């Protein structure tokens, strides 16, 4: 991976590779003026408890798409006692990971740098928050359109939850035009208020985006 990303022969050595520098940015999206990240989960990508990090550590160290695992798990542990809404998923004590959460480019279905991470229990806000702000770290954007099947609930108190995170994960939301949407397939199952407030169809400058790009990738990987 380091070789193909151009870091294999870095005079400073491979250890100088920074966070997400091995990831390939979506080639079709204008960088960095606009982007449209999407959030979704694949609960079929499970991993059983067969080892531990000290014996079988990850190799990427956050250099590409998966978030750096040590910092990610530390954040989850320190925020484990905070009351939060979450989606119920059947628990399996034999699994170290019960699924994978991803942040994608909604237009072109590209995984975003440092936007992929394992789920340990179910679909909790702490996991999603960390991955969302991690992939936006260092981005110079003035417009941010976010699509998520429970955006109507997840976006509530999002900036308050962000304030409890490390400063390098903060987004200047006051200087950024941020909108939240629900993907078109999921939207009819929501209440009428959501169907108007979070609809792609009723929003300007969004094109014909349907918000279902990650679902296509989940189907092929499952």
Which labels suit this protein?
222 residues; single chain; 6 helices; 10 strands; 20% helix; alpha/beta; two-stranded antiparallel ribbon
List the helices and strands and how they pair.
Elements lengths: L33 E2 L1 E6 L4 E2 L20 H10 L7 E2 L7 E3 L1 E7 L5 E9 L3 E2 H11 L7 E6 L2 H4 L3 H5 L14 E5 L10 H6 L15 H9 L1
Parallel strand pairs: 1-9, 2-9, 9-10
Antiparallel strand pairs: 2-6, 3-5, 4-8, 6-7
Q: What does it look like?
A:
- With 222 residues, this protein is α/β, with parallel strands linked by helices.
- It is built from six helices and ten strands.
- The two termini are 24 Å apart.
- The longest helix is centred in the middle third of the chain and has 11 residues.
- The relative contact order is 0.17.
How many helical elements?
Answer: 6
Q: Runs with pLDDT <50, length 5+?
A: none
Could you report the average pLDDT, rounded to the nearest whole number? 77
Biggest beta sheet summary: 6 strands, mixed
| Beta-strand segment tally | 10
Rg: 18 Å
Helix proportion = 10-25%
Structural class: alpha/beta
Order of helices and strands: EEEHEEEEEHEHHEHH
Shape: globular
N- to C-terminal distance: 24 Å
Proportion of residues in extended strands: 15-25%
């Amino acid at each position: 991976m380091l070789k193909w990303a151009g870091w294999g022969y870095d005079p400073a050595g491979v250890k100088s590779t920074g966070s997400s520098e091995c990831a390939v940015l979506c080639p079709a999206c204008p960088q960095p003026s606009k982007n449209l990240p999407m959030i979704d989960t694949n609960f079929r990508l499970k991993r059983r408890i067969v080892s531990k990090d000290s014996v079988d550590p990850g190799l990427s160290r956050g250099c590409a798409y998966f978030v750096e695992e040590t910092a990610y798990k530390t954040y989850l542990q320190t925020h484990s006692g905070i009351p939060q809404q979450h989606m119920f998923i059947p628990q399996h004590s034999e699994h170290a990971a019960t699924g994978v959460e991803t942040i994608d480019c909604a237009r072109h279905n590209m995984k975003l740098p440092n936007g992929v991470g394992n789920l340990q229990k179910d679909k909790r806000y702490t996991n999603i928050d960390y991955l969302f702000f991690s992939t936006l770290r260092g981005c110079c954007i003035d417009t941010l359109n976010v699509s998520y099947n429970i955006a109507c609930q997840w976006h509530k108190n999002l900036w308050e939850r962000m304030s409890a995170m490390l400063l390098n994960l903060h987004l200047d939301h006051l200087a950024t035009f941020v909108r939240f949407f629900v993907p078109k397939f999921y939207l009819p199952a929501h209440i009428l208020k959501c169907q108007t407030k979070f609809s792609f169809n009723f929003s300007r400058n969004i094109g014909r985006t349907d918000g279902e790009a990650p679902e296509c990738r989940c189907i092929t990987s499952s």
